Amino acid sequence: MTGNETISAEERAFMQRCLDLAVRGAGCVSPNPMVGSVIVHDGCVIGEGWHRQYGGPHAEVNAIASVEDTSRLPRSTIYVNLEPCSHYGKTPPCADLIVEKRIPKVVVGCLDPHEKVAGKGIARLRDAGIEVTVGVLEAESERLNEAFMTSHRKGRPFVALKTAQTLDGRIATSLGASKWITGDESRREVHRLRSVYDAVLCGASTVMADNAELTVRHCEGRQPLRVLLDRRLQTPVEARIFNGEAKTLVFALRDEAEDCLVSQLEARGIEVVTVAGSGGGLDFAQVFAELHQRSVLSVMAEGGSRLSAALVRAGFVDKYLIFIAPKLFGGDGLASFGPLDVAHPDCAVKLSFAGLQRIGEDILIEAYPAK
Length: 371
Fold this sequence. Notes:
Helix content is 27%, strand content 26%. The protein starts with 8 loop residues before the first helix and ends with a strand. It is elongated, with a radius of gyration of 23 Å.
């Protein structure tokens, strides 16, 4: 943390309010980050706001606009979970607005990794004589915008891997049946998650087995980009994933996708991108680089055991969302993950649990790769 090294309970509380406000923008502001802002005068909140929609006013602008008595601003503190921007994008710089309103103190959750900001907003404020504290609920602020952070630091989307499995780690029976392992509440939660991720990704075998549509149907929210990995373009053009309910992007293997099949899909308004192969499948690095170029910040992968294992082996899983139903399929069922080449317990893929919640009769475990 830079600025005051001791964080007070009051600072934590006001920053937590920023985070609570910011998350209201989930599914609406990408490729921008989720940001909330609170303005405090003499210990009392006099204004607050959040970034509501991509291209719209930022959180600080909305918070300042909500203050009824603006004469109190020069004696107030503004809290914001992400460094105020210092450049002209779709809106003017928030740092300049704070300077203009003569707000004497700014408390920031974490720095913005965007190359056009990256400390410049803090510098602009301090050059104007404003007191700035950075690092209040820093980890929580980073976690809230993990997709935005990954996009700008790694140049690729943040990838969450979702699985729905039995207690003994099976995603289908010995006959391949998988509907339904988890309950209605878990399926509604998956649809909510789809609405806040920029894209959902699935392999051709899973799409064909389930005739998966990969849309948001059981809750309100935007439709994500549907990303289908189909190296030979085997998925029938009549499949539900091509129904036009949401935009669909297909990745195929450059040397195996027949031109006539590409033309059939393109005739239905489906875009096909061909990439090189890697390890017997598509080159994930090229897939995610293409999505990054399209301003896709976050991807939720909903593949089967082979795709899940391939993503893990390639090092592209940033988060695990594991729904566990209180059921057993036994050893003849299909395992959640294909081979991971783990020969010894010390070589296991190690995770760090981040959250556990009951969803109906099921459990949702959130985990991250162990550092």
